[in-house]
Amino acid sequence: MCLHQMENQFKQIASLIGSPVRAAILWTMIEGKAFTATELAISADTSPQNISMHLARLVQAGLLRVENHGRHRYYTYSRKEIAYAIEAMATLMDPSLVKTSPINDNYPAIKYCRTCYDHLAGKLAVAITEKMLDKKIIVYRKDAMEVSTTGRIWFTNLNIDIEELKQQRRSFLRPCLDWSERVYHIAGSLAAALLDKMLSDDWIRKTRNSRKVIITSNGQKKLYEHLKLTL
Questions:
Q1: According to the model, what pLDDT value does residue 106 have?
Q2: What domain range includes position 218?
Q3: Is residue 230 a contact partner of residue 215, using CB atoms and an 8 Å limit?
Q4: What does the mean pLDDT of the chain come to?
Q5: Are residues 50 and 100 in the same domain?
Q6: Short-list 216, 1, 204, 19, CA closest to 119
Q7: I want to staple 186 with a disulfide (CB 3.0 to 4.6 A). Which of 10, 154, 191, 197 is the partner?
Q8: Same structural domain, 9 and 94
Q9: Strand pairing partners for 75?
Q10: CATH number at residue 30
Q11: Per-residue pLDDT for 70 more than 90?
């Protein structure tokens, strides 16, 4: 693809996301589950007729995909990179607004611990990442993150298979700028596996109809045991 074609495609994508309704759709989907058109219409505060038009445009542009299950149609991101792009755009918000404005009653909890599509985000995710760096579980190599020898042992002890994760057709480990903390947490298949581990072993629990995550007493114990992280 030539530079001119890339520029035109970027303009088209930017125009699509620039619509308030479509931006609301894409932001809602960062929760990481599939949504019906009715659910998205409620989230975007628009009519069923209007949401159908916006969803069709997003599907046509390749940003969303739709699957039929019985009488219902479910919409999701077409690929994980869409979620990462939307989360990254949130870092453009005014830092003072992010730090001081109570958008709603759930906002402080969302900032503390939430999911970013398939990995953990918020203050807890940043703290975990910083502890991993301090303990040399992960290291920076030319602005990229890598798992150290110590880290391989650490993840193996959690029954997380690094080699298997590296075979997936996606980023294995990368830094992701946290929009509420303005520093990096980990993303990629390794971060997704860690989130799955924390959920399955009841370190954390998802909350209904929200991206916020609750840390359990068991999670506090395990995070101290494995990372010496005090919450």
A1: 46
A2: 83-227
A3: no
A4: 87
A5: no
A6: 204
A7: 191
A8: no
A9: 35, 66
A10: 1.10.10.10
A11: no
